[in-house]
Amino acid sequence: MSTAATTPEPREQARPEGATRIVIVGGVAGGMSCAARARRLDESAEIVVLERGAHVSFANCGLPYHVGDEIHDADRLLVQTPQSLRAALDLDVRTGHEVTAVDVERQSVRVQTSEGAFDLGYDALVLAPGARATRPPIEGLDSPASARCAPSRTRSRCAGWSTTAPAVPSCSAPASSGWRRPRRSRTAVST
Fold first, then answer.
1. How far from 145 is each of 135, 156, 159, 160, CA to CA, in Å?
2. Is 171 a catalytic residue?
3. Which listed residue (34, 61, 149, 171) is catalytic?
4. Which end of the chain, N or C, is surrounded by fewer C-beta atoms within 10 Å?
5. What is this structure's pTM?
């Protein structure tokens, strides 16, 4: 960790005395589940969730339906916002905050934002930044025709796929799940 002077985060100064600060890196599925559980276990803890992307707690399982054009409005995939999580669980959720280093000895993380960098101390640290899919060595995987079958774990990477990606008859998996809900028949069946 650099010894250079850092810009303190304004919210850091409001830390309640004696409260445990839990810093969670990653604000989607794993990170938000951990934050909610931490709040249930300690109502007085200061819980800070740092997410480098623009959204937290979006419905990953809904991405195939958005790409498959069953959910037309991508904003319907947004389950929670930093504001709703503050109101419901008293979580300090910060989007656009990327953790670039961890200093275990000082118990702090280095955070980069569009406005600069700062160090944020913690009493407990949870790393839940997600992962990238392994791309197998399959011939033709990088061709434009296979673009709809590319794995994606973020809502922003899927933006526009349903309108810009070419139709691929041989690919029935519009996103990484590999499954597409069958369409229901509209005809009534009598027994």
1. 16, 20, 17, 16
2. no
3. 61
4. C
5. 0.65
